[in-house]
Design a protein that fits this description.
Layout lengths: L7 H14 L10 H23 L18 H13 L9
Helix pairs in contact: 1-2
Length: 94
């Protein structure tokens, strides 16, 4: 197994999106299927990032020089600002 064609920055953005999107998992129960799928999405994304960063020999196949095309903060900062501007009401769940 290699991670030569997978972007760590993209995987970190997936983790950020899944964690922020599925925060309601702790206080809003819809169904078992919904809760299980949310847990699967978050845990598999975190596990992929963990393997890309720490698990030998898999992390040695990740090519960092090919992944630094666009700094991630150029995406996160404008999205966070827009999320604060275009919000329906301010709450942790929102």
């Amino acid at each position: 197994m290699t991670f030569s064609g997978i972007s760590l920055n993209s995987q970190l953005l997936y983790v950020l999106v899944f964690v922020t999107r599925y925060l309601d998992l702790f206080w809003n129960f819809n169904s078992i299927y919904n809760s299980v799928m949310k847990l699967i999405f978050v845990s598999t994304s975190v596990y992929i990032v963990y393997m890309m960063m720490f698990v030998q020999p898999i992390c040695a196949t990740y090519r960092k020089e090919a992944d630094n095309k666009l700094p991630v903060h150029y995406l996160i900062v404008p999205c966070a600002i827009l999320a604060l501007i275009f919000i329906e009401f301010y709450s942790l769940a929102e």
